[in-house]
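Blinded run. Sample ID left blank on purpose so nobody reads anything into the name before looking at the predicted structure. Input follows.
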Amino acid sequence: MAKVKHLETDVQRAISDILQNEIKDKLAFITITDVKITNELSYMYAYYTVYGSEDDIAKTKETLDRANGFIKNQIAKRVKMRKVPELVFKYDKSYDTGKRVDDIIRNIK
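Blinded prediction complete.
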């Protein structure tokens, strides 16, 4: 379990660096909020948030889907793993949920 947690942290750092320095497509302001790797090391789920409009979110998803193979290849070069799991990007809605709750609280009089 501790080894998987360590891998998740390393992969999260690697993905952040790859998106910042290696991806040539224009990305919105994106943050990799978490990475979860399944116990059998079959899948790694990278959760992200985007600061921007719905259009920015859609374009970012499109870019991530298009660059998935490249990103997975870069992870394989940077993070020591026997087998690199399948990479799946998932939009993290927790920021939106938190913002909505914050707005509700602010509007209570």
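Unblinding after everyone has recorded impressions. The chain has one domain: 2-107.
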